[in-house]
Amino acid sequence: MRSLFKIAIIFLAITGATTLLLNFTEIQFGKVDYFDKHGWFFLFSIAIFPRLTLLLSGLIFNSIEFGGIVWWLSFFIAPRFLVSTLATISYWNTNQILVIISWLIALGGESSEKFVITKKFRPKSSFKEYKGETIEAEFVVKD
């Protein structure tokens, strides 16, 4: 139930931000259907390998928006957020469910990736388990 509540909050936040951007700024969202430009293979590869897919499709195939300092920063720091942002700008009018799924993958994927990396490189304590003998000692107070 908690994850369903999170999905509803994310959906409302993205819908609200999109509505504000459309009504109060000069930003225009694309009206192209996702499946007119890309297929299922691209969808799965960008969900599983976002950096590799973004790099190949931007440099070699020219099938996505590419370049700029913000693009490169998000490419190295949080590529799934870059994918979700590009999906929101390009396909919000035609594939809203696909955009919501991309944001859910971005939020879940980035947080789990960072958790695994920090857990893997965290120094391990050698005092968790002691496999030695206990030494009996007598405690004497000297006056």
Describe the structure.
It is a single chain. This protein is mainly alpha-helical. It has one domain (2-121). It contains seven helices and no strands. It has helices spanning 2-24, 34-37, 40-48, 50-59, 69-77, 79-91, 96-121. Helix 3 (40-48) crosses helix 4 and helix 6 (79-91) runs antiparallel to helix 7.
Layout of helices and strands, plus pairs?
Blueprint: H1 2-24, H2 34-37, H3 40-48, H4 50-59, H5 69-77, H6 79-91, H7 96-121
Helix pairs in contact: 3-4, 5-6, 6-7
Question: How many individual β-strands?
Answer: 0
What is the 3D shape?
elongated
Sheet with the most strands? none
Q: Work out the radius of gyration.
A: 24 Å
H/E element string?
HHHHHHH
Distance linking N and C termini: 66 Å
**Continuous helix count:** 7
Please state roughly what percent of the residues sit in beta strands, choosing from under 5%, 5-15%, 15-25%, 25-35%, 35-45% or over 45%.
Answer: under 5%
For the record, the count of structural domains works out to 1
Task: Extract low-pLDDT stretches.
Answer: none
Which structural class do you get from the secondary structure elements? mainly alpha
Q: What is the residue-mean pLDDT, rounded to a whole number? A: 76
Work out the helicity level: 55-70%
Summarize the structure.
66% of the residues lie in helices and 0% in strands. By secondary structure, the chain is mostly helical.
What are the salient characteristics of this protein?
elongated; mainly alpha; 7 helices; 143 residues; 66% helix
